[in-house]
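REQUEST ID: PR-0412
SUBMITTED BY: lab tech R.K.
PRIORITY: routine
TASK: structure prediction, single protein chain
INPUT:
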Amino acid sequence: MADKRRLMQGNEACVEGALAAGVRFFAGYPITPSTEIAEVMAERLPPTGGVFIQMEDEIASMGAVIGASLCGLKSMTATSGPGFSLKQENLGYASLAEIPCVMVNVQRVGPSTGRPTSVAQGDVMQARWGTHGDHPVVALCPSSVRETFDLTVEAFNISESLRVPVILLLDEVLGHMREPVELPDPVTLELKDRPRPLAPPGEREYLPYAAGDDLVPPMASYGEGYAFHVTGLFHNSAGFPTNDSAESERLLRRLMQKVEVRHHSISWAETQDTEDAGVVVVAYGSTARSAARAVKAAREAGIKAGLFRPLTIWPFPAHLLVRAEKARSFVVAEMNLGQLVYEVERHVCHRARVGRVNRAGGELLTPGEILEAIKEAAAWQ
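STATUS: complete
OUTPUT:
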């Protein structure tokens, strides 16, 4: 039997996942370390009938993605830290107007220009709170090349079915490293599309923001004969601006609730040796690879350590921490000076002590550094 494995870069796997999910529009602006996503997309997307366009900047890229999605196309963009900052205003617009789209952020050292070719995980809190106001957020974070493919597909599924922008958080190491992977046949994938209006085009019964019990309103596409209004202002079910406080609050609560009620179905985590662990390491992205090795070394040294690896960063999969219910110490390993650690502290407060091991200079945390943090946490007990 022929070997179907391919040596693939993380950024390339992201493109393959998007294509398998049905992406038909990409707008972006080159920025290290995400540029390969745009390069491969420019080559691969047009033969599928899709459109690739390099915009003049990151702000315009996000605007183009929103416009293409409103016209019915599964749409995405890719960037890194400085570009992620520039996209935040339009990300807020997409959240309030309920426009599906996928934004990939291959993280690098910041703030400002930082170190463009060096790895970091400093955009975790920006992914949650980067745009102003209360808004729904879904952010996924893979740790391998194959998982990058899988979570890119899931990002489109969540975005389309819930009508929310979804962020895929990679990092420079994951984006640029290569691993042998065997990708699934696209026909075997379960793909989801945005809910569609039941009323035929031209009928006045179509209200673009009238949601049923599932809290997700049906979405028509421009050019199909439906007349509807889209705005970044608070709006009523017809899409027109409103200054009614009660109506505005109902809208915002619905936007949040459509994600919150599906928390358990879209918040995923994987665990390693957590059933009897006294010390549990929480790590994500490429840092989780070092953490897995450190946990193994700790076990070999007689320390009952485990690993909790969130694949969904936002909403944080706190309900899965029950898998580490025996832990009395947690160590959060991050390539920043402390971000997700505060979410872990919030959920395990009063029952466990939380430590941290951090690095922000542009290099991976090593297994040895995490192992030393595990040993220190074990001594607390």
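NOTES: The mean pLDDT is 96.
REVIEWED BY: pending
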